[in-house]
Amino acid sequence: MDPKTMDGTPIKARRFAGQVALITGASRGIGRAIASRLVAEGARVCLTGRDPESLAEAVTGLGGPEHAIGVAGRSDDPAHRTAAVATTVETFGRLDVLVNNAGTNPVHGPLLDAEPAAVRKTFEVNVFAVLGWVQEAHRAWLGEHGGRIVCVSSVSGLRPAPGIGVYGASKAALIRLTEQLAVELAPKIRVNALAPAVVKTRFAAALYEGRESQVAAGYPLGRLGVPADVADAAAFLAAEESSWITGQTLVVDGGVTLR
């Protein structure tokens, strides 16, 4: 029987057979979909997330310890990052792919009204922690053996959006960080980013709940994204098919930025 992704789609390719990935913020939503896709294509994965129960459920859903492990903690906690990377390498013997998916958005409204503490928190999780994950993974495995890094940014990092200016600024910084890392870590490590528009997850629910049809009408493809849409793109950037691509941001948006 062919393996299937989280949404039941058959996957025939085994592009990640024998490989290991660490996906941050992967207990649900986009992160979990990426983990599901990579496992379906042969990878073993380490998931991180803040809630141990949700993380344990996600690990079970991916087939248990033969395929996945979970390390609970906050992405902006250096001790957690160290433990997660070390546990991945100790458990599976290697680390080929790092997916920086964990993110936060505690601020909504004009930039002039933003609380400094909330702004700092947003950048700590969405930017500084990403660099921390890369540093840990580089020291533990990638620096010597090479690999691929995928950062999940946002279309709000490409152009302004009402009410989420702080989040957008952090995601713009993440795109710039991706470009810089791609130059510094080449040729052994490729670093790329994804920029999704609104994807139907709990994280983005406030952007579409109760008015999904109205929001989707602004998308040329006529619908909002689902986690599998982003997982497909992440798998491409993490696979050998994209071996001549680095420092790029792949927009996954149903065409909405064209308008």
UniProtKB/TrEMBL annotation:
Keyword annotations: Oxidoreductase
InterPro entries registered for this protein in UniProt: KR_dom, NAD(P)-bd_dom_sf, Sc_DH/Rdtase_CS, SDR_fam
Entry keyword annotation includes Ribosomal protein: no
Record-annotated Ketoreductase domain positions: 19-197
Protein name in the entry: Ketoreductase domain-containing protein
Record-annotated membrane-spanning stretches: none
Organism: Actinoalloteichus fjordicus
Alphabetical list of Pfam families matching this protein: adh_short_C2
Family: Belongs to the short-chain dehydrogenases/reductases (SDR) family.
Gene Ontology molecular function, alphabetical: oxidoreductase activity
